[in-house]
Amino acid sequence: MPPVLRPGDACPALRRDQQRQYHRRAEYSVGVLDLIAAAGDFAFGPGNSFPAVDQDYLLEARQMQAMSFVMHIPLVCFGIAFPSLVIFMEWLGLKTGKAHYTAIARRWSKVMITLFAAGVVTGTLLSFELGVLWPGFMAAFGDVFGLAFGLEGFSFFIEAIFISIYVYSWDRISPKRHILTGIPVIAAGITGSMFVIAVNAWMNNPSGFDVVNGEVTNVKPFEALFANGHLWPQLTHMYLAAYIVVGFIIAGIYAFAWMKGRRGAYFRTAMVVPLAVACIASPAQLLIGDWAARTVAEDQPIKLASFEGLYETTEGAPETIFGWYTEDNTIEYGIEIPKLLSLLSYHDPNATVQGLETVPEDDWPNINVVRLSFQTMVGIGTGLAMLSAWFLWIWFRRRKLPETKWFYRAVMVAGPGAVVALIAGWVTTEVGRQPWVVYGVMRTEQAVTGADGIVFGFAALLAVYLVLIGTVFWVLRRIARQPFPPEIAALEERGEGDHGTG
Amino acid sequence: MELADIPAILILVGIVAYAILAGADFGAPIWAVTARGEESNRLSESGHRSMAPVWEANHVWLIFVLVICWTAYPEVFGSIFSTLWIPLILACLGIIMRAVGYVAGGVSMSRAFTILAAVASLLVPFALGTVIGAIVDGRVPPGNAQGDIITAWLAPVPIAIGLILVASSAYLAAVYLAADADRRGEDDLASAFRTRGLVAGVIAGLLAAIGLIVLEKNVSAEFFDGLTSGLGLVAVIVSGVAGMLTLIMLWTRRFREARFMAAAAVAAVVAGWGIAQQPEMLPGLTIEQAAASDEVIIGLLVAVVIGLAILIPSLYLLYSLVLGGRFDPLSVPAADAAGVEEPLGPASRRALGFVLGAAGIGGLMLFVSDSGVTLYLGLALFLAGTAGGVVLLARSLVRTPPV
Ligand code: HDD
Ligand code: HEM
Ligand code: HEM
């Protein structure tokens, strides 16, 4: 009977002094972190060996992965959030019989399918990259999380099928049925992001398998994916992020038109509806972000410590904003707010927060990258929530849109800002998980490909991505410039809309 | 048949679906390049019109194949993708370029985009064909990039299979587009695609015959025997006969039947491959050794069955709309279904109260609890309140008077 490594066992692959380090940590013993001790070699190929991999490959692979995510994730926000906006507009049009609502829905649906196409191919590339860049990870764990991607595949089918039907069947089927064909698109946006995030949550908080002699066995796929406390906060947080990103980007485009004096019913509606979405989702995101942080504190204390650059385990830990984590494990130029970190991560000002010192430096991520991206996300998130509060305040007090141009300028900046927060959030999660690809179980260097020349693939991909981005922008501009139907054009000239009735 | 074999069959089914559905996506732009001026524009527009509503769905079959492969045979997946990364990334490049063609095709039929899409159409079937060829030829040893990243796919068998796939997607595209043009009553386009289909069909047939010779000279005796005896032989013969029949139907302008026959020819070849590729998937690695545990495979099958139960009616709906010509351009633009003019009334205070209450109470519960029922109940209330808040706010905002 081969030895079974379970959480808490010492790892034969680790040096003695490291093992002692891990034992010291026992007193803060927290869930999955104990698995670190179980990390070892994984069987892949002949002789159960894992070929030593050139570290350059790791860097190249990471950069390629990062570039592909930076393309995919903002695009899929539109796949998640845009359909419900389009369908809401169509519903308004159907309910009130006003032509400009329907006109907005029609035009947006063209934009939606364009962005969807780009989302589909960037996602395809990601699936290829899982194998091309991380064959070791796939060979060892493909069966553990594969189920989620299987379900994901069916979500993609449903999304692709119904988005086509929706976009191409305007005027071909009755308006009520047409709206109904949009509902599966919204549902598939939820399930599609749920299953992929289930995988990511599992990578952060792995369970549902054992490691025996380098073989992953006793796989329980349903447990691995759905009995995971990280899934729900991550999913909710990502889902709201998609609405924030899409809401502010679209509102920002029409805010630009607003500043240029285009304030008729069509343009005003197209601005205020996405704005309503973004201004409610942004404050809500603060609460969900707090929940995400508490989950991290519970299961990934070293990740939390790197968010904050906390070296020593501290009772009543302070929060340090700005600044730079230095070689001698202090933060230079930071502003310290006493006890805030303990309060935020455990809702208790005197809670003990585990520091980086409790594990060897080998097991740390790049502290400054993680800290910076975390603070970027939180900073922008707070800013967006303040912008939303400003808007909501004026609306509830005066039932009017803000008059100052600064508000519209801020909305124009908020869109790109939200995208930055989105990417920064993912960098926090993914880089914060390093050096592990499966937290505490498999190191990223064990996952990476042993093949030569990936960097050329990276360059070629970058080139075609630039062509793709260029074309998407060009097409969107062409769509924006298509002439309006006559009744909308007339409405714009008179500057009228649905108002004046209440 | 063992449990471990079932995912392999699903993979083959996915490959067939991808080849006969998406194969045509990749043939279409090639034909647009074969004409000039006005005719080229018409060919490319007709191709775009036929393919644009379905290509995304067709494309998901590729994802389906990958996902089944890595879930059921993780080590096989890791080995193939590390050794054959070059053709796989080339296929990705092609897929992205093809998407550029679709994206641009919505607003413009410029020649540059057509050429880009045509290049992609050569690249993707060729690259994916070399991947299949490398597996057939036993050039992918198990392990992390254990094969030669160049000679694994730049070798006679992979190249032959790559070329066959290019020819057969061009052929499929011509057949499908001829059928679509025929349905739309565009007789001249139907004839143009018919001629091209006949040429491509003959070329594909010749390439297939040459391919068989290349296979005999190169692949393991075991594989070749599998393909040329028993069920394997049946599959090869069925494919040849179906290919011939397609040509005859195309010749006699029975486009609808030609479409199904062409698909049958491709399906039979893939089935033959599956039969010959046993029992080893990669050299020294049999299906049984490569397969994930029974529990994983059963979980996967459950997911696939549930998924198919939703997928098949949806696909049926899509294709019946497309093939029934419902997405073809309308001869008369439909009038907007202007409903009754019924202005939105103000949102009720009760609704506002519910929304604020749900968001507030739910948010508080979420904030104070760490796990369990209160947390998830709080989350549900909070999200419901948030969604309701958005609808109320948006409703009242659209009634704003102008500044
Ligand atoms: C518009 C985007 C956006 C905004 C405004 C925020 N976030 Fe965020 N955040 C994300 C977009 C995002 C994300 C990109 O969606 C991430 C990456 C992984 C995930 O699940 O969500 C994320 C991750 C993420 C994580 C890491 C989860 C993990 O590693 O498992 C934490 C702790 C927070 N966020 C916390 C916050 C807080 C406290 C915010 C409030 C100010 C905040 N986020 C605003
Ligand atoms: C399933 C959902 C996943 C999501 C949403 C996700 C998201 C991301 C994002 C956004 C980044 C950061 C990009 C950046 O650095 O700018 C990233 C980086 C990375 N991801 Fe993931 N990822 C997922 C799965 C995976 C998988 C399956 C692997 C492979 C083993 C992986 C390995 C990595 C690595 C190695 C990096 C680079 C980290 C670094 O730059 O230090 N991720 N991921
Ligand atoms: C932040 C995490 C992610 C989210 C929320 C997400 C969500 C989505 C959504 C909603 C779509 C539908 C297409 C669209 O709307 O544009 C999509 C497409 C796709 N995604 Fe992602 N995704 C994420 C990360 C990943 C990762 C890590 C992979 C693969 C490893 C991946 C693979 C794909 C594929 C293959 C498609 C194309 C599906 C098709 O053909 O329709 N995604 N994604």
Task: Characterise this structure.
The complex is a heterodimer of chains A (502) and B (403). By secondary structure, chain A is mostly helical. Chain A has one domain (26-491). Chain A is built from 15 helices and 11 strands. In chain A, the strands form 5 sheets. A 3-stranded antiparallel sheet of chain A has the order 1-2-3, with no helix packed on it. In chain A, α2 runs antiparallel to α3 (99-133) and α8 crosses α9. Chain A is globular and about 70 Å long. Mean pLDDT of chain A is 79; it is low at 1-37 and 496-502. Chain B has 403 residues and is an all-alpha fold. Chain B has 2 domains: 5-289, Formate dehydrogenase/DMSO reductase domain (Formate dehydrogenase/DMSO reductase fold), CATH 1.20.1630; 293-403, no CATH class. Chain B is 77% helix and 1% strand. Chain B has 15 helices and 2 strands. Chain B has helices at 6-33, 37-51, 55-72, 74-83, 85-105, 111-136, 156-183, 187-218, 221-228, 230-251, 255-276, 287-290, 294-323, 349-368, 372-397, and strands at 280-282, 285-286. In chain B, β1 (280-282) and β2 (285-286) form a beta hairpin. Chain B is globular and about 80 Å long. Chain B starts with 5 loop residues before the first helix and ends in a 6-residue tail after the last helix. Chains A and B meet through α2, α3, α4, α8 and α14 of A and α3, α4, α5, α13 and α14 of B. The complex binds CIS-heme D hydroxychlorin gamma-spirolactone and protoporphyrin IX containing FE (2 copies). One protoporphyrin IX containing FE binds at residues 62, 65-66, 69-70, 73, 130, 134, 137, 196, 199-200, 426-427, 430-431, 434, 437, 444, 447 of chain A.
Q: If you consult CATH, what is the topology of the largest domain in chain B?
A: Formate dehydrogenase/DMSO reductase fold
Number of strands of chain B: 2
CATH C-level category of the largest domain in chain B? Mainly Alpha
CATH superfamily of the largest domain in chain B: Formate dehydrogenase/DMSO reductase domain
Please indicate the count of domains of chain A: 1
